[in-house]
Amino acid sequence: MTRSKVGTNDVDALTDAVLTASRLLVAISARSLAAVEETITLPQFRMLVILDSRGSMRISALAELLDVNPSTATRMIDRLVTTGMVARQSNPATRREVVVELTEEGRRVVRGVSRRRRAAIGRIVAKMPEAERQGLVSALAAFTDAGGEPAVTSADAGWI
Hints:
This protein is mostly helical. The chain has a single domain, classed as Winged helix-like DNA-binding domain superfamily/Winged helix DNA-binding domain (Arc Repressor Mutant, subunit A, Orthogonal Bundle). The protein is built from 7 helices and 3 strands; from the N terminus they run ααβααββααα.
């Protein structure tokens, strides 16, 4: 299916294009998660990715990054603790707070899912005409910068 070119100032058309691309990316993510032995949801996987990229943190900070209530984050953590993907421990600095950290199993899951996603996205990008690919990196970088998402770098390529 060929899409018509849109002007760079046509916010509605660009929004439609990003939404369409996001559906594809969600589908790729869902297929990549389907290979995980334990069933986890996309929001739970997002939690694992945050813990992998930022390290251990308080539940309230994690909930804020996920844009969910702390009680929702706690339920997600409960599920991930039972799967062995995250662990709770007392905060060494205060001992009153609880922090959550990724386990080796959680790291294995993040790396496996990310590797499958990277391969699937790579196959799609390879099908794009080269002329269309040229502006994609800068456009997507600007988009993710505007959304506050940390960049994935070539140094991450070994596990993504």
